[in-house]
Amino acid sequence: MGKLLYGMITSLDGYVEATDGDLGTGAEDEEVHTFIGDRFRHVGTYLYGRRMYETMVFWETAHALPDAPPHIVQYARDWQAADKIVFSTTLEAPSSARTRIERTFDPDAVRTLKAETDHDLTIDGPNLAAQAVAAGLVDEYHLFVTTSVVGGGKRFFPEGVRLDLDLVEERPFDTGLVYLHYRLRPTA
Length: 188
Fold this sequence. Notes:
Layout: E1 4-10, E2 15-18, H1 30-40, E3 45-49, H2 50-56, H3 70-81, E4 83-87, E5 99-102, H4 107-116, E6 121-124, H5 126-134, E7 140-145, E8 153-155, E9 165-172, E10 178-184
Parallel strand pairs: 1-6, 1-7, 3-4, 3-6, 4-5
Antiparallel strand pairs: 2-8, 7-10, 9-10
Helix pairs in contact: 1-3
């Protein structure tokens, strides 16, 4: 059975997208990028909303960029090897291999997908992830916290959801970014 992971870069005050679009610094570093690649290399399926998919499809060809450093090539190869499911009512066709489009997010279908796979999945993008969090589907949370407080935008955690989590791992980086890994606390 696979676990569903939700991880994103967030501001110190919990926003994954700031009102002005800038979350601050800390994630552009090679060490951080390599860590993120290593942390999620085992993922076999990415679940995306349209906007996040359109951002991430860059990795379909990033390995071919002139002078691409090894950590970029590795991340691109890992991304290309995974399956992608894009939840969108507007996207006509995928622009990457191993990608299919679903018109609606169905929590029961994701539950079945988790149960039938032997690899982990990620859900990426705050709007789509909010649906998975609310449905109780997310098993682990991976926050990459910047040094900035941005005061508003799209939140990492959706409003109105109570979660009790256990801290599994933390790691500070020289850039000031801090990685926090949480698991859903087992219910008694």
